[in-house]
Design brief:
The chain has 535 residues and is an alpha+beta fold. Helices cover 36% and strands 21% of the residues. It contains 11 helices and 19 strands. The strands form 4 sheets. The protein has a 5-stranded mixed sheet with strand order 2-1-10-5-6. Strand 7 and strand 8 form a beta hairpin. Helix 1 runs antiparallel to helix 6 and helix 3 crosses helix 4. The protein is globular. Bound molecules: the ligand Nc1nc2c(c(=O)[nH]1)N[C@H]1C(S)=C(S)[C@@H](COP(=O)(O)O)O[C@H]1N2 and molybdenum atom.
């Protein structure tokens, strides 16, 4: 019995691993669903948020320690994808156990039917999960279903053969094929070849899959992508070399969401459904929305899971329709107090009408950097709310339902901050020994970075070295009152190992919180410090 369990599990896992490669190829070449990710998205939705977040945090730590995944978000996605494939393979192992146990109870002539049958049932169940969770598979349903169920049948058949080989049963009537060891070697070899071919071909077809940028780009742009000078182009302060780009290239912008693959929304069939407590419900097309009065602003957005000095923050130009205009159009009823905003991936958040009425900057955004939102960053519509972390601002918006009671959104229900007001932060990007210079007989090393306090603004940034006195850094004019501020401090060079620290003061005089707190539940606080040997 124990042998059957172990054998079934190993065989099931091995065969399934080969299928991962096949599914991957089907996904890349024909837009067929990649079932392991759909399954993971499903499990992530069923399990409490803590479990998933904990698992991902641990994996991210391991991946970063191993030097895999160059940024936190690429490491997080890699962790999720690794977990998704591991989960799928483990389930395949369990299917193997199920099939081996079943076959042990059945007369030999029924084995083929039982194996294929169980494989097909597993395939059909997974197809159901995929239909509910996959938002990116482009292949038509009539192709997806036979593909997935057929792979299930193939797995069942292979496991039936594995069972026969391991128990020295005839494969088909009368003929005894290969012995057990030979069979395992062949199956293992086939799995390995399939996996290598799949991964290799997939990497070729997706250009290595290296969509995520490694480090922040440090080239300072002077114009936006339409060629217009940036609003602070004339500022005399040159950032220290190695300071992050003040205007994040869109392709480098971080991405955080609850799906493994971003949903692809078909513009031709898209409408924004506005329903609930409104006098004028709407079904606007994108063209109708783009024809409405619009506003643009340079905006810095950060994820609440961004650790101190982390990479989950970026600055770009957002364009959209003021939410106040939308309220005027739809006329909320006197009972309406909030909008439940839903994303195509199943994400949701609530936005209070009072907040909209107080702040004309809140907008329904359709463009970044003067181009339609990238798929990964929320095409076709996302919301912007000044001073809040990203978790309050849904992407891929499909519906806005006006409701008469404030509710809790996706991450709030999972224990994260209700208001998600951004914490002030400041970061040292560079201690640029390479660009040290001499003035009046002294050597100076430019130090630079950013400071950000949402829409509250930055009054001052201060740097200290080796616990000395806090020194004023110089500030560049920010791109807008809602973006980070780049700062620079030219430090009188002294050879040795040094500790550099930075802090900021908000426009109203509030100092940055120095107490070190992790990201969950209200976002990280604490000062960034950097140790560096300078020679
Ligand atoms: N539909 C949807 N919107 C979402 C999310 C999501 O998972 N689904 N994640 C939120 C979080 S936690 C953040 S930090 C921002 C990230 O936006 P970005 O991926 O464009 O950087 O999107 C927010 N909006
Ligand atoms: Mo986030």
């Amino acid at each position: 019995m124990r042998g059957r369990l172990v054998g079934g599990f190993l065989m099931g896992a091995m065969v399934t691993l080969g299928m991962v490669a096949l599914l991957y190829l089907g996904g890349v070449m024909a837009g067929l669903p990649f079932i392991p990710f759909d399954l993971f998205d499903f499990v992530a939705r069923v399990l409490p948020g803590d479990v998933i977040t904990f698992g991902i945090d641990r994996m991210v730590g391991v991946l970063l320690a191993l030097g895999l995944g160059s940024t936190l978000d690429s490491a997080a996605k890699l962790a999720e994808q690794g977990m998704a494939i591991a989960l799928f393979v483990v389930l395949g192992g369990l299917l193997g156990v199920g099939i081996f146990v079943l076959l042990a109870r059945l007369p030999r002539p029924r084995h083929t039917l039982a194996g294929i049958g169980m494989g097909m049932v597993a395939g059909a169940l997974l197809m159901g999960v995929s239909l509910a969770f996959n938002r990116s598979a482009a292949a038509p349903i009539w192709l997806q279903i036979p593909w997935v169920v057929g792979i299930g049948a193939g797995v069942g058949m292979m496991l039936r053969n594995a069972y026969a080989a391991m128990h020295n049963l005839p494969q088909s009537d009368g003929v005894t094929v290969i012995d057990r060891r030979e069979f395992i070697i062949q199956l293992g070899g086939a799995t390995a070849v399939l996996t290598l071919v799949g991964v290799g071909l997939g990497a070729l077809l997706t250009g290595g899959g290296s969509e995520e940028a490694g480090e922040f780009s440090t080239e300072q742009p002077t114009t936006d992508s339409a060629g217009n000078p940036l609003p602070n182009a004339g500022d005399p302060l040159t950032p220290a070399q190695g300071t992050r780009a003040e205007y994040t290239p869109v392709r480098e912008h971080y991405r955080i969401d609850i799906v493994t693959v971003p949903p692809v929304v078909d513009e031709a069939r898209y409408t924004l459904k506005i329903s609930g407590e409104v006098a004028n419900p709407q079904n606007w097309t994108l063209d109708e929305i783009r024809a409405m009065p619009s506003q643009s602003a340079f905006i810095t957005m950060s994820c609440i899971s961004n650790p101190i000095a982390g990479r989950l923050i970026g600055t770009t130009k957002w364009t959209g329709v003021p939410m106040q205009y939308i309220l005027d159009q739809v006329q909320p009823t006197p009972d309406a107090v909030a909008i439940r905003i839903g994303g195509d991936d199943g994400f949701d958040e609530f936005l209070a009408l009072d907040l909209i009425r107080q702040d004309e900057r809140i907008m329904l955004c359709y463009a970044w950097d003067d181009a339609p939102l990238p798929v990964r960053n929320g095409f076709p519509l996302r919301v912007h709310i000044p001073d809040r972390y990203g978790m309050k601002q849904p992407k891929w918006i499909t519906g806005m339902q006006f409701v008469n009671e404030m509710g809790e959104g996706y991450w709030v229900r999972r224990g994260w901050s209700k208001e998600a007001i951004v914490n002030a932060t400041s970061v040292i990007d560079t201690v640029s020994v390479e660009t040290a210079y001499t003035r009046a007989g002294r050597q100076y090393v430019p130090i630079g970075g950013m400071a950000w306090a949402g829409a509250r603004g930055i009054r001052a940034v201060q740097v200290r070295v080796d616990n000395g006195d806090w020194q004023e850094a110089r500030l560049r004019a920010p791109l807008s009152e809602r973006t980070w501020v780049l700062w620079r401090y030219d430090w009188a060079f002294e050879q040795g190992n040094h500790t550099f620290e930075v802090r900021c003061i908000e426009a109203d005089g509030t100092p940055q919180t120095e107490r070190r707190v992790g990201t969950r539940p209200d976002g990280a606080t604490g000062l960034h410090s950097l140790e560096k040997a300078v020679r």
